[in-house]
Write a structure and sequence with these properties.
Elements: H1 13-27, H2 37-44, H3 48-60, E1 64-67, E2 71-74, E3 79-82, H4 88-94, E4 99-109, H5 113-119, E5 127-136, E6 139-148, H6 165-173, E7 179-188, H7 191-197, E8 204-214, E9 217-227, E10 231-234
Parallel strand pairs: 3-10
Antiparallel strand pairs: 1-2, 4-5, 5-6, 6-9, 7-8, 8-9
C-alpha cells in the first residue's frame, strides 16, 4: 500500500484516509486483504475511531467488505448496468464473459392477470412461460421469469432457449424488439431464488420488470432478479419533465 501522509487541515482525517483506501480498493484485485485497523492507525498516525469511520463508509459504498474474525477485504466488483435495450448474452460477451443459460421451465399456459394485461391477451389465453438461470463464466448472476406473447412468437418452446431469446425472436420470427418500459426495485432473495443464485436467503437483489415490444405490439413481460453484490445501475438524468405518467426507465439488461 502506497504511503500517503494525513495532515491537519480543512478536510477531516477520516475523509483523507477514506480517499487513500478507496484508491487501494480500486487498484487491488477483489478479495485482497487490507491492513488491520491497528496497522492503519499506526501507519497514518490517526485514532482507531478515525480508521473505523473511513472503513465503515467504504463498506457502505460496497468497496470493502468485513469478514468476522478474518479482517477487511476489497469487495467483488459490481457490473455497471446501463439501462438500454440489449440481451444478457450480448451484454456479457461485450464485457468479456462467457454467458450461459439454464432453462428451468418452459410451458404454454394462461399467465397471471398482470402479464395478460401487459401482453394484451384475452381471459384464459395462454402465453409462453420461460424461467431461466443466467450465468457468466459459470457464476450465477440472474434468474429470469417471464411471459411471451403467442400472437407474436408462437411455438417459442420449440426453440433452443439456452442462448439469446432476443436473437431467436429476431432470427426465427423476424421481430426486432425496439421499445420497453422497465421498473426497478430492491428485494430480499426468497429461498428458491437464493438457492439458484448461490446467495443466502434475504440477500439483496436488484429486480427489473420489463415489458418490451416491437412496432407497438407487446411481446415480452419479464422480471429479472440480479445479485445485488455484483450489479449496480447507472442512469443518465436531465431536467426534462415528462408530460404525464410515472417515471420509468427505458430498456434494461435481461
Amino acid at each position: 500500500m502506497q504511503h500517503h501522509r494525513i495532515v491537519d487541515g480543512p478536510k477531516p482525517k477520516h475523509a483523507q484516509l477514506r480517499d487513500i483506501l478507496r484508491a487501494v480498493a480500486d487498484e487491488a484485485p477483489p478479495g485482497s486483504a487490507i491492513p488491520s485497523e491497528r496497522d492503519l492507525a499506526t501507519r497514518y498516525r490517526v485514532s482507531r475511531i478515525t480508521v473505523r469511520a473511513a472503513i465503515g463508509q467504504l463498506v457502505s459504498e460496497g468497496l470493502l467488505t468485513r469478514a468476522k474474525g478474518r479482517g477487511t477485504f476489497t469487495a467483488k466488483r459490481r457490473m455497471d448496468v446501463q439501462l438500454y435495450l440489449e440481451s444478457f448474452t450480448d451484454d456479457m460477451r461485450k464485457r468479456g464473459f462467457t454467458p450461459s443459460s439454464e432453462v428451468l421451465r418452459c410451458a404454454e399456459e394462461p399467465p397471471p392477470v398482470s402479464a395478460a394485461s401487459a401482453l394484451g391477451l384475452g381471459p384464459g389465453e395462454p402465453a409462453c412461460a420461460v424461467v431461466r438461470l443466467r450465468r457468466a463464466d459459470g457464476v450465477p448472476l440472474t434468474v429470469e421469469r417471464g411471459w411471451y406473447s403467442p400472437r407474436v412468437v408462437p411455438g417459442l418452446p420449440g426453440h433452443d432457449l439456452t442462448g439469446s431469446l432476443y436473437a431467436i425472436i429476431a432470427d426465427a420470427y423476424g421481430v426486432q424488439l425496439d421499445h420497453a418500459e422497465q421498473t426497478a426495485w430492491a428485494e430480499g432473495a426468497d429461498r428458491a431464488t437464493a438457492r439458484l443464485l448461490g446467495v443466502r436467503e434475504g440477500s439483496p437483489l436488484l429486480v427489473f420488470r420489463r415489458v418490451a415490444g416491437s412496432g407497438g405490439r407487446p411481446v415480452e413481460d419479464m422480471t429479472s432478479w440480479y445479485r445485488g453484490d455484483l450489479y449496480q445501475v447507472t442512469m443518465q438524468l436531465d431536467r426534462t419533465v415528462p408530460d404525464s405518467g410515472p417515471h420509468s426507465a427505458k430498456g434494461g439488461t435481461t
